[in-house]
Design brief:
This protein has a single domain, classed as Rossmann fold (3-Layer(aba) Sandwich). It has seven helices and nine strands, in the order βαβαββαβαβαβαββα. The strands form three sheets. Strands 2-5-1-6-7 form a five-stranded parallel beta sheet, sandwiched between helices. Strands 3-4 form a two-stranded antiparallel ribbon. The mean pLDDT is about 85.
């Protein structure tokens, strides 16, 4: 069974505008009628679970997966040995949930090693930082945005469009839709 969810990644250094650009894309793509999911990479040890709570107790008792179901939310906790396995599992879950587009924030290393053809929007603080981020990011890179786009008057860098999503967000959305072979 193949994965049918289309991926668009937003990658860049810390505090470069990744979450803002990703949230903008989620909002705009959702408004266009797509079922959109978001996947956020957290670099440090982190758990949504709270020690001593029921879900934590079930997880520590040996459950492979713990689902916490509330009237308007579902949380699934699964301990994963490798980050790429978590990413692949999330994609299968999104596919099962009929997510059409997943906006991926971060995961630059996984996207370089396992999902090479995912179109990417790069964020950066400065023009100097763009070069550094581009050197560690596998193409295709479809746009540059984030903080640097708010600070520069340049329209492109190495033939990649620089788009201030706050001023020219429609242009960024069009580029994303084209990269995903989708129509508005």
């Amino acid at each position: 069974m193949g994965i049918f969810v289309k991926l668009i990644a937003v990658v860049g250094n810390k505090n470069s505008g990744k979450t803002s650009v990703a949230a903008f894309l989620v909002h705009q793509l959702s408004n266009l009628g797509y079922n959109v999911g978001a996947i956020k990479h957290i670099h440090h040890e982190f758990s949504f679970d709270t020690k001593g709570k029921d879900t934590w107790r079930l997880n520590n008792a040996g459950a492979t997966v713990v689902a916490s179901v509330a009237p308007k939310e579902l949380a699934i906790i699964r301990n994963m040995p490798q980050a790429h396995e978590s990413f692949a599992t999330t994609l299968r879950l999104f596919d099962f949930m009929s997510i059409e587009i997943a906006v991926v924030e971060g995961f630059r290393e996984i996207l370089t090693e396992y999902e090479k053809n995912v179109p990417k929007v790069v964020t950066a603080h400065s023009m100097t930082e763009i070069a550094s981020v581009l050197n560690t990011t596998t193409p295709p890179i479809i746009a540059i945005s984030g903080i640097v786009a708010e600070k520069t008057e340049k329209n492109e860098f190495q033939s990649i469009p620089i788009i201030n999503y706050k001023k020219n967000g429609e242009e960024l959305v069009q580029i994303v839709l084209e990269a995903l072979s989708l129509k508005q």
